[in-house]
Amino acid sequence: MAGFKPTDVPPTATVKFLGAGTTACVAEFITFPLDMAKVRLRDPKPSTKGSCLPSSAWAPGM
């Protein structure tokens, strides 16, 4: 049968770029919720100060 076999035509740069982007989005979509759960389980008491800076950053004389 005449024609191209799937192995005869390499993917173009555009196809590779879109494939890599799609794969990255799917991987992030799966891993982000898992990472968020891990972080929340590690620190069960949320901070009530409302500040992200450590207390040493607010020490007088600094």
The DSSP helix count reads: 1
User: How many strands?
Assistant: 0
**N-to-C terminal Cα separation, in Å?**
79 Å
Shape: rod-shaped
| Structural classification | mainly alpha
Order of helices and strands: H
Radius of gyration: 24 Å
| Beta content | under 5%
Low-pLDDT sequence parts: none
Largest sheet, in brief, is:
none
Percentage of residues assigned to helices: 40-55%
Query: How confident overall, as mean pLDDT?
Result: 79
What does this structure look like?
With 62 residues, this protein is mainly alpha-helical. The protein has a domain at 14-38. The protein is 48% helix and 0% strand. The chain has one helix and no strands. It has one helix at 13-42. The longest helix is centred in the middle third of the chain and has 30 residues, at 13-42. The protein starts with 12 loop residues before the first helix and ends in a 20-residue tail after the last helix. The mean pLDDT is 79.
